[in-house]
From TrEMBL:
Annotated ranges, domain AMP-binding enzyme C-terminal: 517-597
A single GO molecular function term of this UniProt record: propionate-CoA ligase activity
PROSITE patterns in the cross-refs: AMP_BINDING
GO cellular component: intracellular organelle lumen
Residues covered by the Acetyl-coenzyme A synthetase N-terminal domain: 6-60
UniProtKB keywords: Ligase
SUPFAM superfamilies on file: Acetyl-CoA synthetase-like
Protein name listed in UniProt: Propionyl-CoA synthetase
UniProt key word Ligase: yes
Family, per entry: Belongs to the ATP-dependent AMP-binding enzyme family.
Domain of life per record: Bacteria
């Protein structure tokens, strides 16, 4: 099997990282070629390409235009929710980015300043990201499905000079006005940006400049009309390119910091070697720029590679039907596509026989990549049989920025085993560890860890919080990064990822924190305590369920209905509709250990019909007995 290219690359990446990544770095245009590759001067804070300088936007746009790709499409914007499509060439995208960068610069945005971007899947979101990169400013994109509380904590932490927002997002059944959410977030945040730029969309224009605010509100079009184009600013390879907040178990999100140099090198390498996409190819990632999959594989990797990227503002189903993806593939001649398994489960539900696939010419499509949550074998089989192309699972996280494990279609396609994302990607020294940090044997399930150093393109720290980076990821086992996922490796070296070992939720491929949903519930005056658990869902993989204890004096029986509906509303308003909370049970007590830790995992196991692991330290086992029929029973 295979030509040995994978094995050779993998071994070299670990035994000779300088040679391996030094070679990969030649695919990037540097201003100062890095004198060093791996910098181990300050473990566990490893750095890549120290001393090198570059500009990421130059690598994504200018150099392609200079090399003659100016007329090639960079983006195909396809928006069934607004009935719009638009193709933007590399030359046109460069022009828009340079002007918007000029506009940001005129507002005082300079190297190192943060810019929060709160926008749906519109080309201007990509323009804003690349404009920040052009100036050496640090963008932090917040997913449009997050509401005021989530947006506020991100603004508070990133302390942006400017916030760039759209007036609205367009969901299939409603227009979501962003501006009121942004205003509410800015009211809550003690940090106020100097300016807010609003992109007006015709579906719902926002009132700009009419509020009495601490910041200046500006209209995108007016600002850009007056702006001079800005040049690329030289940054260090180790300077931050972006912060992307992701959910931990607590309500406080973690600001994943990505650098410029390692990121450009790793993503360029992955596009060819993992996904088999090169210059001139058309690639379609159906995700959102607010998630890491969107950052890496809608924006940066395809553009760094001179490919054409489809920017899709719509859903897999309902916009207008389950043939939406196939229509895009046929229209643009897409060579490979990437999305989350949930999207395929939704298509399978609406079009089980794949009839809509047959009404489109899918001959261009060579591979389908799926990530973001576990790819269940049923969905894998369904997609493989219906499409007749390899369906490739790949496993990674916001923290790593690109796949930890994959079947490397460009480097060396390997046999696919359903249920496994295949093998560790070069650069990731994956180990399965037991409770005491001992390495487990083949087939044994344990904590999936990565021996340090992590490869280029992975997180360098948490924004403003080196200590939390070390305590959260590097302290469980000395010398290893803890992924938070459990799993095992088989006799062929294939990895099986079994799911999170902590309380992080994965709802429709979206990572959410139990803590932030609990914080929204706990803010209700009737709530004494609450717990949120992620239970199995056929479509979304997981959905949250809430268990709430009301304060004494509150009549949970009489007022239950009203409290429940107020709680559901609170979660939608604070966290966002994507939390997908539909069920709240009012209970008399929550099961805890003697030290007061709520047994979420045990409750989840009961709700999912598994045999629960009940810790010996449980405070009162009868609480769990009383709760079992509620957890197992119908809503
Ligand atoms: N802005 C505002 N609201 C949003 C939103 C956004 N960007 N994205 C989702 N929402 C809302 C939805 O409108 C929905 O609201 P509702 O409860 O009023 O109907 C709610 O959040 C839940 O959304 P979602 O989880 O997307 O469920 P759905 O039932 O609307 O759609 C799928 C189900 C499977 C079609 C959808 O989840 C999907 O496309 N999944 C693919 C996942 C994906 O791309 N993940 C990215 C990681 S790779
Ligand atoms: P995020 O940071 O939002 O990308 O979520 C990362 C988490 O999603 C991982 O830690 C896993 O729990 C889960 N995940 C992502 N991709 C996969 C996959 N291919 N198989 C199993 N779980 C996955």
């Amino acid at each position: 099997m295979g030509n040995g290219a994978y094995r050779a690359a993998y071994e070299q990446s670990l035994s000779d990282p300088d040679g391996f990544w030094g070679e990969a770095a030649t695919a990037i245009d540097w201003i100062t070629v890095p004198p060093r590759v791996l910098d181990s001067d300050r473990p566990p804070f490893y750095r890549w390409f120290t001393g090198g300088t570059l500009n990421t936007c130059f690598n994504a746009l200018d150099r392609h235009v200079a090399a003659g790709r100016g007329d090639q499409p960079a983006l195909h914007y396809e928006s069934p929710v607004t009935n719009t499509s638009e193709t933007i060439t590399y030359a046109a995208l460069l022009d828009r980015v340079a002007h918007f960068a000029g506009a940001l610069a005129s507002l005082g945005v300079a190297k190192g300043d943060r810019v929060v971007i709160y926008m749906p899947m519109v080309p201007e979101a990509v323009v804003a990201m690349l404009a920040c990169a052009r100036l050496g400013a640090v963008h932090s994109v917040v997913f449009g499905g997050f509401a005021a509380a989530e947006l506020a904590v991100r603004i508070e932490d990133a302390k942006p000079t400017v916030v760039v927002a759209a007036s609205c997002g367009v969901e299939p059944t409603r227009v979501v006005e962003y501006k009121p959410l942004l205003d509410a977030a800015l009211d809550r945040s003690s940090h106020k940006p100097e300016s807010v730029i609003v992109l007006q969309r015709p579906q719902a224009r926002a009132a700009v400049g009419e509020r009495d605010t601490d910041w200046e509100e500006l209209d995108w079009d007016e600002l850009v009309a007056d702006a001079e184009p800005a040049d690329c600013v030289e940054v260090a390879a180790t300077d931050p390119l972006y912060i992307l907040y992701t959910s931990g178990t607590t309500g406080r999100p973690k600001g994943i910091v990505r650098d410029n140099g390692g990121h450009a090198v790793a993503l360029r390498w992955s596009m060819g070697n993992v996904y088999g996409i090169g210059p001139g190819d058309t690639w379609f990632t159906a995700s959102d720029v607010g998630w890491v999959v969107g950052h890496s594989y809608i924006v940066y990797a395809p553009l760094l590679s001179g490919a054409t990227s489809v920017l899709y503002e719509g859903k897999p189903v309902g916009t207008p039907d389950a043939g939406a993806f196939w229509r895009v593939v046929a229209k643009y001649g897409v060579k490979a596509m990437f999305t989350a398994p949930t999207a395929y489960r939704a298509i399978k539900r609406d079009d089980p026989d794949g009839e809509l696939m047959r009404t489109h010419d899918l001959t261009s499509l060579q591979t389908v990549f799926l990530a973001g949550e576990r790819l269940d074998p049923d969905t894998y089989e369904w997609a493989t049989q219906r499409l007749g192309v390899p369906v490739v699972d790949n496993w990674w996280q916001t923290e790593t920025g690109w796949p930890i494990a994959a079947n490397l279609r460009g480097l060396e396609p390997m046999p696919i085993k359903p249920g496994s994302p295949s093998v560790p990607t070069p650069g990731f020294d994956v180990r399965i560890l037991g409770d005491r940090g001992q390495e487990l044997a083949t087939g044994e399930e344990g904590a999936i860890c990565i021996r340090l150093p992590l490869p280029p393109g992975t997180l360098t720290t948490l924004w403003g919080d080196d200590d939390r980076y070390v305590s959260g990821y590097l302290s469980a086992f000395d010398g290893y990064y803890l992924t938070g996922d459990g799993g095992r490796v088989d006799e062929d070296g294939y990895l099986y990822v079994m799911g999170r070992t902590d309380d992080v939720l994965n709802v429709a491929g979206h990572r959410l924190s139990t803590g932030s949903i609990e914080a929204a519930l706990a803010g209700h005056p009737a709530v004494a305590e609450c717990a949120v658990i992620g239970v199995h869902d056929e479509l979304k993989g997981q959905v949250p369920r809430a268990l709430v204890v009301v304060k004494s004096g509150v009549d949970g029986a009489a007022d239950g209905e009203q409290i429940r509906s107020e709680l559901l509303r609170r979660v939608r308003d604070e966290v966002g509709a994507i939390a997908s909370l539909q069920r709240v049970d009012i209970v008399t007590a929550l099961p805890k250990t003697r030290s007061g830790k709520i047994l979420r995992r045990t409750m989840r196991e009961i709700a999912d019909g598994q045999t629960p692991n009940v810790p010996g330290t449980i405070e009162d086992a009868s609480v769990l007995e009383t709760l079992t029929p509620v957890l197992r029973g119908p809503a």
